[in-house]
Inverse folding.
């Protein structure tokens, strides 16, 4: 404990704080871009999975295979795989790009489950009605399914993003300059582990907690009317 | 694109990978049961506890679910020796994962606790159930049915999470793969095979957990 108190002034130097802030920015950037790209790609994967009939079979199989495969591989192993594959076939790819690719693959697999859950919450009759009105598949999706399912998708999506802020810490393993990596560096510079990792944990908390509160608020806000409707009518 | 895949060298080392997989499973199972006990305690504190106890349990849960498990283990691994606690890397990983799992499972179990309605207990009482009969025939089956799918799902997530033990030099599946790959420079093939092993392991785990749930608690768990 004495070591912590002794090192505290040196640890809180402006340069160190700036490096930590920069590393936090990197973590947030990886989270937002990775999740954003992941949800975009997941939308396509779900669209593939919903393709009808015999002609759609290969697409469906492909989508299910992708999701089931990457949901069952640890994120760390995905990161290593992407790193070594890219290192073997592309010359001079940046580590951030590698990390972003790994994160996108991982988040696509999980996000497509979230989106599919949302789409399946739309009553079947709605889709039948749209078909009866001669909507095309794309029109049905955009004009009928998405407007009704986004309140179901959004809260778990935010929860997933919160989880992602924490999952990106594993990317430090391949040397991307983010918060965990910075923590390891500071520890290697001789700062006390209690101090460094306590601070890093606190910084993760600062990023993650507001987002998780936001997720809880969204869930309450968006989900409440659906469940409470009959009760309200009774009163 | 001038890379020649050679899986032979990797398959020759399968026994070592198998040992790693067993260690992964061990870490996973140990921290799951530890976490389940901790989670049960925390959930009970949170639901039935008084002011201070509830606040403590709640802050534990909030803190541990909002920081990465890796950082928690780093804290144990590099921080604790400074106050005189020297644990091996495997111990640090298991304790860290247990604390983390406990926080997550507490939320799941809390949902199970509050899903038992007072009216059900009253009904059981009306039918002349003794206290233990109420627990055995009403409370436990109800809670089990609510939390079993979430627990089974979390076990699979935790099995994947054990891969982070490799960061601390534990020779579980990922660590073992990394060691062997630095031996023979077959990183791509090695991690492809390891990914396959993880898929197989978690698939077996989900399948058997789903069947067990159907047999024991009549839970209709989704496998896919």
């Amino acid at each position: 404990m004495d070591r912590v108190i002794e090192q505290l002034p040196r640890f809180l130097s402006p340069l160190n704080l700036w490096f930590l802030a920069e590393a936090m920015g990197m973590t947030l950037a990886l989270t937002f871009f990775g999740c954003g790209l992941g949800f975009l790609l997941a939308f396509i994967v779900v669209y593939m999975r919903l393709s009808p009939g015999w002609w759609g079979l290969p697409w469906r199989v492909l989508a299910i295979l992708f999701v089931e495969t990457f949901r069952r591989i640890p994120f760390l192993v995905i990161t290593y795989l992407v790193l070594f594959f890219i290192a073997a076939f592309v010359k001079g790819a940046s580590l951030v790009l590698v990390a972003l690719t790994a994160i996108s693959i991982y988040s696509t697999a999980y996000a497509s489950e979230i989106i599919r859950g949302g789409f399946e919450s739309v009553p079947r009759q709605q889709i039948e009605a749209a078909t009866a009105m001669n909507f095309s598949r794309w029109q049905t999706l955009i004009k009928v399914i998405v407007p009704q399912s986004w309140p179901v998708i959004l809260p778990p999506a935010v929860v997933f993003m919160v989880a992602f802020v924490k999952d990106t810490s594993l990317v430090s393993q391949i040397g991307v300059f983010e918060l965990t990596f910075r923590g390891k560096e500071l520890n290697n510079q001789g700062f006390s582990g209690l101090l460094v990792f306590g601070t890093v944990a606190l910084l993760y908390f600062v990023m993650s907690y507001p987002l998780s509160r936001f997720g809880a608020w969204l869930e309450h806000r968006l989900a409440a009317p659906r469940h409470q409707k009959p009760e309200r009518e009774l009163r | 694109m001038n890379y020649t895949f050679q899986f032979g060298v990797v398959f020759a080392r399968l026994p070592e990978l198998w040992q790693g997989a067993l260690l992964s499973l061990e870490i996973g199972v140990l921290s799951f049961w530890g976490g389940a006990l901790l989670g049960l305690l925390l959930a009970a504190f949170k639901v039935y506890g008084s002011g201070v106890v509830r606040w403590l349990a709640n802050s534990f849960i909030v803190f541990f679910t909002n920081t990465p498990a890796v950082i928690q283990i780093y804290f144990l691994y590099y921080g604790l020796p400074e106050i005189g606690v020297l644990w091996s890397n495997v111990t640090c990983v298991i304790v860290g994962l247990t604390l983390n799992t406990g926080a997550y499972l507490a939320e799941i179990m809390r949902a199970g606790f509050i899903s038992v309605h007072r009216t059900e207990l009253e009904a059981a009482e009306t039918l002349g159930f003794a206290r233990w009969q109420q627990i055995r025939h009403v409370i436990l089956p109800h809670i089990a049915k609510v939390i079993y799918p979430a627990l089974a799902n979390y076990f699979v997530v935790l099995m994947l999470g054990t891969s982070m033990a490799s960061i601390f030099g534990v020779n579980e599946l990922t660590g073992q793969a990394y060691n062997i790959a630095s031996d023979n420079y077959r990183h791509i093939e090695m991690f492809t095979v390891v990914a396959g092993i993880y898929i197989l392991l978690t698939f077996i785990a989900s399948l058997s957990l789903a069947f067990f749930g159907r047999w024991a608690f009549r839970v209709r768990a989704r496998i896919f």
